[in-house]
Amino acid sequence: MRGVPPGAPGFPAASAPRAHPLRELDTVLTTCRACPRLVAWREETARVRRRAFADQDYWARPVPGFGPPDAALVIVGLAPAAHGGNRTGRMFTGDPSGDALYAALHSLGLASRPTATHRGDGLELSGVRITAPVHCAPPDNRPTTTERDTCRPWLARELALLRPTLRAIVVLGAFGWQALLPVLAGDGWLLPRPRPAFGHGAEAWAAAPDGGHRIPLLGCYHPSRRNMSTRTLTPAMLRQVLARGARLAGLPSGG
């Protein structure tokens, strides 16, 4: 499948497995146009901008993962927000979900700043990488199953490149949990049977296919504006799960 154009459905499956190192994966990923509905939405959102951002140029491309290539803890979300990551070009940056997530990471000593406003704002993560199963902003924050599956090779390759240092995964929301399990299974990780169900505070372990270390998968409600405003998820609840993930990953933190 060499030479597959970025707009073809098979582009992620053809391009992701060949990408190395992680920075190359991030670069190739941003050229993807494999899902017509997502491409149309991300670009339309950039044309019809929210009034607060009317003077800004939107990223309007797939948003790569954010964090060091030797991260021990991976955080898996859902997809970029239309006026957050789709605007700024960085995961959980410029939206209320990011405000909650980075404040919690900063309180644990895992982020250099408590806020994320734009690329180049000086924010750095320590031992943590943030990614998502879908890299383009979807209408109503709801990717289709076809879009999720088309995007899957990017996440699979990202986790494969992180495997030497990966020690724990925190998943924000049921969509990310359900998307992650097939990725791990497809890469040979041994998962519990029956497949673990998502829940806030859920914890399951996956065994490496080569007989190496096991990694914990931790569930956490997504820090969406709705979840935070209804207190379905509180800052303390978010911090508790992230602190647990950091400890299991062997990261020094304030948790």
Automatic annotation (TrEMBL):
SMART domains the record matches: UDG (SM00986), UreE_C (SM00987)
CDD domains (UniProt xref): UDG-F5_TTUDGB_like
Keywords carried by this UniProt record: 4Fe-4S, DNA damage, DNA repair, Hydrolase, Iron, Iron-sulfur, Metal-binding
Domain Uracil-DNA glycosylase-like: 64-242
GO terms of molecular function: 4 iron, 4 sulfur cluster binding; DNA-deoxyinosine glycosylase activity; metal ion binding; uracil DNA N-glycosylase activity
Classification via InterPro entries: UDG_Type-4/5 (IPR051536), UdgB-like (IPR044147), Uracil-DNA_glycosylase-like (IPR005122), Uracil-DNA_glycosylase-like_sf (IPR036895)
Any single biological process term in GO: base-excision repair
Transmembrane residue ranges: none
DNA damage keyword on record: yes
PANTHER family, per database record: TYPE-5 URACIL-DNA GLYCOSYLASE
Family indicated by similarity: Belongs to the uracil-DNA glycosylase (UDG) superfamily. Type 5 (UDGb) family.
Record protein name field: Type-5 uracil-DNA glycosylase
Source organism per UniProt: Streptomyces harbinensis
